[in-house]
Amino acid sequence: MPFTYEYPRPAVCVDCVVFGIPPKPARIRPGRLPGVSVLLIRRLREPFAGRYALPGGFVEIDEPLEAAARRELLEETGIAPVRLVPSGVYGDPGRDPRGRTISAVFRAVVWQREHLPVAGDDAEAVRWFPLRRLPDLAFDHDLIVRETWQGLRRAVRGGPFGWELLPDEFEAETLAWVYRKILGRGSAIDELFAGLRRYDLIRRAARRSRDDTSIERYRWNLASYRKWERLGFDGLGLGS
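and the corresponding structure tokens:
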């Protein structure tokens, strides 16, 4: 018998959408600035051999979904981000020519320069692609990337964001750069930090001196961060 019970079972997969934030230049000049990138693998095997796709694969029978996502991402790219966030489920019939598959998608945001991928497992190659200039992707991964990016931008507007990208103490300009890359607008630092303070998300840290200049530094109030991450809020006044 093909099944142990009355109904067939779809296969369960995980896919990882990893967004790479470019480093903040020492001096921001007018003109085109580097944008966000997406980590893609080139498939070694059929279906879609030779095409680029998101890192991912099949879930083992006794494996939690996030553990499967971390395993596949590490095996195929060598990257282990601090945080993976569930971002959607995709299961339209026909999305995979091998048969019915349902994919749980996870997203991560990392500093691109700090994560140099190395292809492994069934990935023939791996590289960062600019989000706005992606190649044709396998399966329904074009749709997954687009909707995951939209979901990330909604999350940044509607809740706290950034602790996994920053050290314990950070400068205002660094956090503002992250927001600018994701939201696509040059919000004033004062406007951003006024919103963060309104929700008690940041606290001033000790001033540091650099090149005879006193640098204001901040740290997260993690208790408030966890609270507003759970509850969400109406935004930081940064627009849509």
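(Above: one complete record from the training split.) Residues 11-158 form a domain with the Nucleoside Triphosphate Pyrophosphohydrolase fold (CATH 3.90.79.10).
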